[in-house]
Amino acid sequence: MSVLWTVKVVGLGAVALTLSLELLGRLFGRLKHRKTLNEVLFFPSEVACVEHFFTPTATHSCFCSLPHGVETSFYRLLRHILSASSSLDLCVFSFSNADLRRAVLLLHSKGVAVRVVSDKDYSAITGSQIGVLRKAGICVRCDVGSVHMHHKFAVVDGRRLITGSLNWTLTAVLNNMENILITEEPDLVQPFVKEFHRLWVLNDPAQYYQNQ
Amino acid sequence: MSVLWTVKVVGLGAVALTLSLELLGRLFGRLKHRKTLNEVLFFPSEVACVEHFFTPTATHSCFCSLPHGVETSFYRLLRHILSASSSLDLCVFSFSNADLRRAVLLLHSKGVAVRVVSDKDYSAITGSQIGVLRKAGICVRCDVGSVHMHHKFAVVDGRRLITGSLNWTLTAVLNNMENILITEEPDLVQPFVKEFHRLWVLNDPAQYYQNQ
């Protein structure tokens, strides 16, 4: 009788131990799985070919003189932007970079909902790509109220924030000391989602002319 | 005998249960306790009196015409900067805001180790506070290599990152649409700590003149 009870107790202990380990394993596994995307990029970026983002066959057939297959800061920035599958909300002071314009047009052509808020003065300067986006049918709204709409952020699919000091210009990418921070931390992303919505509504031309 | 064993098993089960609950409680408590600081501020900021940051007695005795006791974006930004107890590493393109200059000088006077990296061209323009910081004995290094040292970030005590689109100017604070993101997420803070160190060493005047 005593031996049988010992076996039962040991068995019970073994079951309790394995259950506890399994529970802890699942808990940590879930925490590990939920590791939030956080990345920082610094500029100026090295120069490298990014043609394969726009012409998939170029991966093996581009013969331009730039280095190929190098994961520069600009390469990673483009990859984050092009990861959009449903929406891209872009709020940028100055936008003159041709590769970034190509990325936005590519997303638009794939059916991704693109919305752009920009600065009135800077959207009219020589080299600005804002006019090209408008001609392609992308909805752009310009801030007319503040001295400058100085933001430089994008929200991808409502959950990935791309923000920093970097304007979407060639000088910023290739010459300046700049930073870009990419995060999916909801406490950081959600305020930018709300701010984009606020600026989008605030700069609705219908709304604006109504208030004149 | 059988009754005694039953008591032992039930007792063992109770002990296992309470231990498991305690373990889970501690685990969740620690996770809750470790909730990382993440905050986003948008500008332009409302105008309010911030005199109490610099003259503690002003909390009850300031009679200026500005609203008092309002937690504006600028108020919160100042509070984050003034939370520094050991170091402030500042890397900012344009610095002309008098209240931010007062905050940096206050930290310096309290013995906080302040280091500043700024843009060569913008540190020489009218209204720049960089000269005032230098006169007070704060070590400032100017970037001479890139087209623009366009960063606008600060690291407080090596663990709190303040970064965004906002230059440290009056126009940025009171007129522009701007953002500031404050985080203690190590994955985001550490790259900026390293970048500051890199820029600090890179722009060491001794190093610079050696390379001429």
TrEMBL record, chains A, B:
<dbReference type="GO" id="GO:0034587">
    <property type="term" value="P:piRNA processing"/>
</dbReference>
<comment type="similarity">
    <text>Belongs to the phospholipase D family. MitoPLD/Zucchini subfamily.</text>
</comment>
<dbReference type="InterPro" id="IPR001736">
    <property type="entry name" value="PLipase_D/transphosphatidylase"/>
</dbReference>
<dbReference type="Pfam" id="PF13091">
    <property type="entry name" value="PLDc_2"/>
</dbReference>
<keyword id="KW-0442">Lipid degradation</keyword>
<keyword id="KW-0378">Hydrolase</keyword>
<keyword id="KW-0469">Meiosis</keyword>
<keyword id="KW-0472">Membrane</keyword>
<dbReference type="GO" id="GO:0016042">
    <property type="term" value="P:lipid catabolic process"/>
</dbReference>
<dbReference type="InterPro" id="IPR025202">
    <property type="entry name" value="PLD-like_dom"/>
</dbReference>
<feature type="domain" description="PLD phosphodiesterase">
    <location>
        <begin position="145"/>
        <end position="172"/>
    </location>
</feature>
<keyword id="KW-0443">Lipid metabolism</keyword>
<dbReference type="InterPro" id="IPR051406">
    <property type="entry name" value="PLD_domain"/>
</dbReference>
<dbReference type="GO" id="GO:0005739">
    <property type="term" value="C:mitochondrion"/>
</dbReference>
<protein>
    <recommendedName>
        <fullName>Mitochondrial cardiolipin hydrolase</fullName>
    </recommendedName>
</protein>
<dbReference type="GO" id="GO:0051321">
    <property type="term" value="P:meiotic cell cycle"/>
</dbReference>
<keyword id="KW-1133">Transmembrane helix</keyword>
<keyword id="KW-0812">Transmembrane</keyword>
<feature type="transmembrane region" description="Helical">
    <location>
        <begin position="6"/>
        <end position="25"/>
    </location>
</feature>
<dbReference type="GO" id="GO:0016891">
    <property type="term" value="F:RNA endonuclease activity producing 5'-phosphomonoesters, hydrolytic mechanism"/>
</dbReference>
